[in-house]
Structures are given as structure tokens and as C-alpha cells.
Write a structure and sequence with these properties.
This protein is of the alpha/beta class and about 170 residues long. It has 7 helices and 6 strands. The strands form 2 sheets. The protein has a 3-stranded mixed β-sheet, sandwiched between helices. Strands 4-5-6 form a 3-stranded mixed β-sheet.
Length: about 170
């Protein structure tokens, strides 16, 4: 299993090696990343998956994994997700992680996160200071079908992409 912490740290419960401790102190990884990586390792063992990061907002935890790894993490009949929900005490969603460099990447991330709601489109809003944000467009009639409150989904997407993301209902 490829994770943001080393294999030795995956197998231990209480301590991190100096290199991983430095990543944690520097903000490269979070306590949640460490906790989820260890839980996934206990559940799945040494399988060929890539765990990229975990993001938390409200009572929702989103696990970002590598391309094609979602079915393995979810498990047969959602068995692994049920175990994660029980361990974390929060709702869990697993999405395929992308670099989030393009509008198409943002749309794919939003589509996975907002399922079953369809993402109508993504706009880039350029600011005078050279920075930019993303507006994710969702049809107004589908607002009630969102899996979580819009503010929580905005927070999760912003944390994953590293850019400000807003949901706009059209």
C-alpha cells in the first residue's frame, strides 16, 4: 500500500519515525492522514492501492485514493466502509484523487463527491490580484439531492484542490 507515511509507521500504532514526524509538523500530512492510513492498512493489508489523503469537514470524512482504487477501498458490499464508519464515528466517502490542475479535474472530483447529483459545469473566476477560484455549477432542482450541505462540500473540495471552491445553483 502506498501511503503518505512509511511502511514501518503504518504497522505501528503510537509513534512515527522522525521523517514522518517532520511531515506531520510541517503540515505535509495531518493526524487524520496518519489515522486513515493505519486503518486502511489494518483493513486491507499490503494491497496495491494508493492512499493520497483524507479530508474532514463536519461529520464527513473524504478519503482520496489513486486511480482505480475506489472499489478495493470500499470493499465487497461496502464492508470496509462500514468498518471505517464505525471506527471514525463519521460518514465516509471515497473518491479518486487527481492533481486538480484543470477544470476537467475539478469537475471529475466534484462529480465523484456530489454523486448522485450531476455537476453542470465548472467556471474559473479570475481575481484582479492574479489569483483564481472555482465555481461548481449544479442545477437548482438537484440541491436537495446533494449528499451533504453545500458548505461542507465546498470545504472538502477546497481542501482537496488547495483553491477556493464555491457551489452555485443555476
Amino acid at each position: 500500500m502506498k501511503a503518505p507515511i512509511c511502511e514501518v509507521c503504518l504497522k505501528t500504532d503510537d509513534i512515527l519515525c522522525p521523517a514522518d514526524e517532520k511531515k506531520l509538523q510541517g503540515g505535509t500530512i495531518t493526524e487524520l492522514d496518519v489515522k486513515i492510513a493505519r486503518l486502511l492498512y489494518k483493513l486491507l493489508g499490503d494491497v496495491e492501492i494508493e492512499f493520497r489523503k483524507a479530508v474532514e469537514s463536519g461529520d464527513l470524512v473524504v478519503i482520496v485514493v489513486g486511480k482505480g482504487d475506489v472499489p478495493i477501498v470500499v470493499g465487497k458490499g461496502g464492508k470496509n466502509i462500514k468498518t471505517l464508519v464505525k471506527e471514525l464515528g463519521k460518514r465516509v466517502r471515497v473518491i479518486e484523487g487527481l492533481e486538480a490542475d484543470t477544470v476537467d479535474d475539478i469537475k471529475k472530483l466534484a462529480t465523484d463527491l456530489f454523486y448522485p447529483v450531476t455537476v453542470f459545469g465548472v467556471n474559473v473566476v479570475y481575481r484582479p490580484n492574479g489569483e483564481y477560484t472555482y465555481k461548481v455549477l449544479v442545477l437548482g432542482k438537484e440541491q436537495k439531492r446533494l449528499p451533504e450541505k453545500p458548505e461542507i462540500l465546498e470545504s472538502v473540495l477546497s481542501q482537496i484542490t488547495g483553491k477556493e471552491v464555491r457551489i452555485v445553483f443555476v
